[in-house]
Amino acid sequence: MSDPLAGLEQQRSGILTRILELGDFRSGSITAIHGRCGKSTCHCHRPNQPGHGPNFRLTRKINGKTVSETFSSAAELRKAQREVEAFHRCLQLGQELLEVNERICQTRPVEDTLSPQEKKRPKRSSKRSRAK
């Protein structure tokens, strides 16, 4: 048994409101990178040293190419983290919206919107098809 149509439409409106409240968002993932520099005398080349980092990068696809962006400050990193989290919430809300809309489509009754011309049945052809 499915929900009544009014309840589903209200649910859809709530999802759309939450999407509008998301604010700025962008796709990608943020990762921490540890690495060694090119200076052979640096501490990162000594045994049991973790290397430099963590350096955080935002990686995403733009026009089919992988693009990485580094952050020069902690404030830029926090901003990017909020935007990526908002993007994942947008994806989740989009999936919820799709599911509710599918239920609405299944629940909504069919309306008779045919014009009088469309209601007339086409006449059958009096010609017989030739078998080949």
3D architecture notes:
41% of the residues lie in helices and 18% in strands. The chain has 3 helices and 3 strands. The protein has a 3-stranded antiparallel β-sheet with strand order 1-2-3, with helices on one face. β2 and β3 (65-70) form a beta hairpin. α1 (5-20) packs antiparallel against α2. The longest helix has 34 residues, at 74-107. The radius of gyration is 29 Å and the shape is elongated.
In short:
The chain has 132 residues and is an alpha+beta fold. It has helices spanning 5-20, 74-107, 116-119; strands at residues 29-35, 52-62, 65-70.
Features:
132 residues; alpha+beta; 3 helices
Instruction: Provide mean pLDDT, rounded.
Output: 87
What is the chain-wise order of helices and strands?
A: HEEEHH
Largest sheet: 3 strands, antiparallel
Poorly predicted tracts of residues = none
Provide the structure class.
Answer: alpha+beta
Judging from the principal axes of the Cα atoms, what is the shape? elongated
Q: Count of DSSP helices? A: 3
Reconstruct the topology from this structure.
Blueprint: H1 5-20, E1 29-35, E2 52-62, E3 65-70, H2 74-107, H3 116-119
Antiparallel strand pairs: 1-2, 2-3
